[in-house]
Amino acid sequence: MFFVLSKTVSLLFMPLTLVVIFIFLAVFVKNPKLKKYFFWLGFGLLLFFSNGTIANEVMLVWELPAKPYREVKSYKLGIVLTGSTIHKPFPNDRVYFQRGADRVTHSIQLYKLGRIEKILVSGGLGTIDGESEPEANKFRKVMILAGVDSADIIIENETRNTYESARAVAPMLKELNYEAADCLLITSAFHMRRSLACYHKVGLDLDYFSTDFYTYPRNYQPDSLIIPKVEAVVIWQKLFKEWIGLVAYKVAGFV
To answer: In the beta sheet, which residues pair with residue 81?
Structure first.
């Protein structure tokens, strides 16, 4: 039940959803003052959420920073969280990625550089759209194609969210004789705070390696300061999803 609610209720509080709600109210309410209020509120939010500079500054604060490979010590295990493949009604003889493929490619690079000895991929069916193959299996396919030894890949493909992942991985690490200090958590930078909190909740205080950054170098040129950008709305969508998810996890006792 929590999984379904987390995937649906949060949609009501996304930036564009709020804009549409206020514009809708501006069209259909009868009171002239309220009509004007809702219109300008919706229009103002649209300008705010589409401002590239504001979105980038907020995301810069939220994302946990990147680490150069030379500064990453050696770990016995890299724990990679899924959440970046997408189900397509096309031939199933390949893996389709959306944003977040860095979770795979950077994990492969860490492995090739000797920064991690083995890889544990955690994530099952993370959508409600009829997808039938767990994401962890898809990650494994790509890693093997890139030259990772199949014997060095451990799969956890039953969980549907970050907290379930943490609860499933914790006993696996104990069974495989891995300590928290032996492991490196790998996921998207915007998702790292919630991920670390979930793993902390189950007694694992892990080092992290952020990937898939939405931020870019600060730019105070007129086009960034004034011209609305679709990319800014996307950043806010990710931020709202994480913030709402973190609140929901807190209420549920997951973090």
So the answer is: 122
Nearest to 117 by CA among 181, 74, 82: 74
Helices (H), 151-205: 162-175, 192-201
Residue 250 has pLDDT above 60, yes or no: yes
Tokens describing residue 81: 């969280």
What contacts 106, CB < 8 A, 6 or more positions away? 186, 209, 211
Q: What is the DSSP letter of 228?
A: B
**How far apart (Å, rounded) are the C-alpha atoms in residues 214 and 235?**
7
Per-residue pLDDT of 92-109, as tens digits, reads 889 999 989 999 999 999
Mean pLDDT of 48-55: 96
Please determine, for residue 128, whether its predicted confidence score (pLDDT) is greater than 70.
no
Instruction: List, in order of start, the domains of the chain with CATH numbers.
Output: 2-63+230-252 (no CATH), 69-211 (3.40.50.620)
Distances from the Cα of 106 to the Cαs of 80, 167, 187, in angstroms? 10, 24, 10
Cα 228 to its chain centre, rounded Å, is 24
pTM of the model: 0.91
Cβ neighbour number for residue 176 with a 10 Å cutoff: 13
